[in-house]
Amino acid sequence: MSRPTLRASALRIPFTEAFSHAAATRVQTQSVWVEVEDGAGNVGYGEACPREYVTRESLAGALAYIQAAAAEWCAEIRDLSSLRAWVKDHGEVIDDHPAAWSAVELAMLDLFARRAGVSIETMLGLPPLTGVYTYTAVLGDASPAVFEAALARYVAAGFTDYKIKLGGRGAHDRAKTAALRAAGIAPDRVRADANNLFRNARDAVRYLDRLDYPFAALEEPVQARDLDGLVAVARACDCAIVLDESLARAAQVEALPAGGDWLVNVRVSKMGGILRGMDTATAAAARGYGVIIGAHVGETSLLSRAALTVAQSCRAHLRGQEGAFGLYLLARDVVTESLTFGAGGRLDARCVPQGPGFGFVRVARP
Q1: Is the pLDDT of residue 5 over 70?
Q2: What is the DSSP string of 163-181?
């Protein structure tokens, strides 16, 4: 079989509305798009979201790395076995370029599964996707009026799980919690994400005390990897802690302080692909920690589909799932069969394309 060829480019799709949080405001996707084609006409597709404040990668840097390493990958990686071997032998390299590699890995997995005529799950030894996946309503750091309007749409649509972005402006954040109360949403169904907003646990607890809202979980309230600070916030606020920027690989799960109510946010791009995402989810589940399948703002249906594979590997331990915004946020999608949640944030597995690989029949070039 001839050596595959690899192409990489930037994927820029406008949003239907801006989305903000403490670390950034976005009006379009910031994604890497990869296509890997073999000599028989099979094409695999991959996508990832480099983020300076999460993966320490810029879009330009991720593309440069892929272009520099493409020839090596195409020469060494020919099937699932050699892909697994490359991931095992190059952990430190992937740590430095997780999103860039993730886009490549997804494209390789898609190609190999398409070539074999099977789904990604079948190729990886997982059960087929079944049942219903329920997504969290995610509300950005918007003005009170915009926040209340978005919340009303989610409530009307029947969502049961909510995640709000804290921006550090007391009046705005208090207006968000007031809107949640007014809507009759139980606090034990609400997570808050601070995106490493506070310098230390003392500042975080002081601010959260003023909000006076018993969130079920707090995501990254202090600086990334400040585990002692996270433990202090968890104890003071009596809630679970979601680890996102503070945890990017399976080995870090083993280093978590015992006794904490940790929830591990597994985002495919952040983890460095599906294989490492599955490993991290497995490590978290083995220690009794919950798993949240996270998403970057602006993911297309391809990444939403890839996240379903990771979710399927740890379904009994899922405490939340994000993503599948599809055409609610994107002006267009990369596939004709857009994966967009429906009423109540539910996505029925029967609505997921059933073709080989990730299943999509028509994939548009960016």
Answers
A1: yes
A2: EEE--S-HHHHHHHHHHHH
Closest CA relative to residue 91, chosen from 207, 223, 252, 259: 252
Task: Provide the CA 178 distance to its chain's centre, in angstroms.
Answer: 28
- Domain boundaries for CATH 3.30.390.10 within the chain: 5-123
User: 304 in the Ramachandran plot: left (φ > 0), alpha (ψ -120 to 50) or beta?
Assistant: alpha
Q: Looking at the DSSP assignment, which residues form a beta bridge with residue 44?
A: 36
Give the chain's largest Cα–Cα span: 64
* Amino acid occupying residue 91: G
For the chain, give percent helix, strand, coil, nearest 5: 40, 20, 35
Which residues make up the CATH 3.20.20.120 domain(s) of the chain? 132-351
Q: Where are the beta strands (DSSP E) in the chain?
A: 5-11, 14-21, 24-28, 31-37, 43-48, 132-134, 137-139, 162-165, 190-193, 217-219, 240-243, 262-266, 290-293, 318-321, 346-348
C-alpha triplet 80, 113, 323: angle, nearest 5°: 100
* Alpha carbon 109 to its chain's center: 18
Residue 168 CB burial class (10 angstroms; 0-12, 13-18, ≥19) = middle
Instruction: Measure Cα distances from 219 to 154, 173, 191, 224, 244 in Å.
Output: 21, 15, 7, 10, 7
Distance CA 101, CA 46 (A): 10
- Copy the structure tokens of residue 55: 């993966």
pLDDT bracket for residue 334 (50, 70, 90): very high
- Give every CB contact of residue 5 below 8 A, 6+ residues apart in sequence: 36, 37, 74
Whole-number Å distance between alpha carbons of 111 and 65: 21
Distance separating alpha carbons of residues 103 and 46, to the nearest angstrom: 4
CATH number for the segment(s) 5-123? 3.30.390.10
Q: Does domain 132-351 have CATH number 1.10.390.10?
A: no
pLDDT digits (tens, 9 = 90+) for 286-333: 999 999 999 998 999 999 999 999 999 999 999 999 999 998 989 999
